[in-house]
Amino acid sequence: MASVTLSNIVKRFDRTEVVHGIDLAISDGEFVVLVGPSGCGKSTTLRMVAGLEDLTSGEIRIGDRVVDRLEPKDRNIAMVFQNYAIYPHMTVHKNIAFGLRMAKLPKAEEEKRVREAAQILGLTDLLDRRPAQLSGGQRQRVAIGRAMVRNPAVFLFDEPLSNLDAQLRAQMRLEIKKLHQTLGTTVIYVTHDQVEAMTLADRIVVMRDGRIEQIGTPTEVYRTPASMFVARFIGSPSMNMIPGRVEAGEIRFDGLPPLQRPGGLESAGGAVFLGVRPDDLKVAADRPAGAFAIEARVEVIEPLGPDTLVYALAGSRELVAKADSKVTLHRGDVVTLVADSGALHVFDAATEQTLRRQEAR
Amino acid sequence: MRLGFDPRRDPRKILIWTLVALGGIVMIMPFLFMISTSLKGRGEVYDLRLIPLAPTLENYAYLFRESRFLRWFLNSFAIASISTVSVLFFDSLAGYVLCKYKFKGRQVVFVAILSTLMIPTEMLVIPWYVMSKNLGWLNTYWGIMFPGMITGFGVFLMKQFFETVPDALIDAARIDGLSEFRIFWEVALPLVTPALSALAIFTFLGSWTAFLWPLIVTNSASNYTVPVGLASFSGEFSTEWNMIMTGAAVATIPTLVVFILLQKYIIRGVILSGVKG
Ligand SMILES: Nc1ncnc2c1ncn2[C@@H]1O[C@H](COP(=O)(O)OP(=O)(O)OP(=O)(O)O)[C@@H](O)[C@H]1O
Ligand SMILES: [Mg+2]
Fold first, then answer.
1. Which of A12, A43, A98 to mutate to test the interface with B (most CBs of B within 10 A)?
2. B61 occurs within a structural domain
3. Domain that holds residue A297
4. Which residue segment(s) compose the domain that B7 sits in?
5. Buried-most residue among A294, B43, B54, B211 (CB within 10 A)?
6. What is the ipTM of this complex?
7. How far apart are the CA of B248 and the centre of ligand 1, in A?
8. What is the pTM of this model?
9. pLDDT at residue B275 tops 50
10. Which residue stretches of B101-225 are H helix?
């Protein structure tokens, strides 16, 4: 087990720089998820940690060793790939044992580790099969098994669940989390699925265009997004964004009533965006004092079971809100959408950064 | 075998089948004549009937006892085998590097290799000859073999096939701790066996039937390959057709064996490469 430290990592492919100086300190045993849209450099960053890609500049430490010049096999890491990457011409047993054989482990120890891993992953009965005779979930389990038996200091996962269907993905997600709790190994996990990020991570690293946008626990990233990008990317459906202007101590909107300037706002004038999560924007019967409230007309209703998503028009602006499923709503109803003032986010329209002081960090 | 249709009910099918059958007969006739002629005595050679009047094995006996056919056969076999092994190894190695490694000038190298495909043997024999003469390779096995030890076609074929091996598999092997050569040998190569079998067939048969260059480079009967040897049965004044046909009949056997053997691998290879991921 080991900590991982990235210092000012830069990666250039020919002329194009795709990772622009990443700093990240991961502590021993931590589960860190790199999340971001396609092409933001998640895989490239992970592959640099693995040693599959050279650094253009910067330094990577695993434990207290600088690993920049080491071969992947000497870095004490193991990696699981999106498309399984298990050897099609070898049995499950051989696939799992292959790395150990390369490391010239004693036969008995090799067998013991393979059996153990197979036991944990439920592969015991499949050890003599070939990958072609396995389902997608089983193949990914083999890939995880192959990583496990190496007893690595760090597990690297690159979108390991993307090729699985939704149900299996949820199940494997749980298994990976359990595995981490059992083994306690440091994990760096790449995904573009924010649900995976939220559910698995001790800390989430939100990336955008080769830079880190925000690092924080799932709750921090969800509750106090540092920028509009993070606010939109984390949470589903996306945060509502309402353009407005800060003027004379209040925020004014086109076609909406002005809002008392929320407390804790850093001094700013000019254009802003007011952000409020659908989860925080409730369809309410009355208008509680001091809260943010908007009148809106119901357009579309999506029942989710425990509650209902409500797409409503406030003026010409579409907002997404939540209603208790016990409340009966109809298309065309005019409702009051209410949010606690503590749940409001204000972003500078120019820099897209939050104007709220970062609390409790 | 179950047919998906009843040929009696579909006249178009009858027509197609008839044409295919005729085509088959046309293809197989020369072979039948070859075997038939090899079984004929000297007097009967120019009699074109298919079933010999007095079938005899004396041509075969003569071929193996009196001529140097066995020597030629072994020459051909050794040369074809060595060329095939060499081509499989070096062409797949070059194809793999061109496919999986990104380096400066990769495209240039690839195009240069491809362009060698456009030059016909007939144009190359003169430079080959000059080269062999200067290096003392004339009338040697190496002289016969060297032009076919690495082929542009094979490099091209293998490069294309290595595209089907996922890069992640190679990365996984790197993490598993394999050296670059062992990744090629133990991970990538087993996944392109269909291409290897196809290339093996092409190469072996190409070498087995090569005529022009072996004819030019050899000058003593003990170094002849089968085609050159058979041609020597055709003298200045007479041609021993029965001997040529007998030699050709025997020479067909390895071709058939190679094909039958490797066809099995092709099918197995296709099943293997059907594996996802
Ligand atoms: N070998 C390469 N050569 C050139 N450019 C590359 C190479 N690999 C990646 N890139 C570029 O680097 C950028 C980041 O790629 P990367 O694969 O890290 O993205 P990602 O965040 O993993 O995206 P995804 O979610 O689609 O996997 C992309 O713009 C990509 O085009
Ligand atoms: Mg990626």
1. A98
2. no
3. 238-348
4. 1-56
5. A294
6. 0.86
7. 58
8. 0.84
9. no
10. 106-115, 121-135, 141-145, 152-162, 167-176, 180-182, 193-209, 212-217
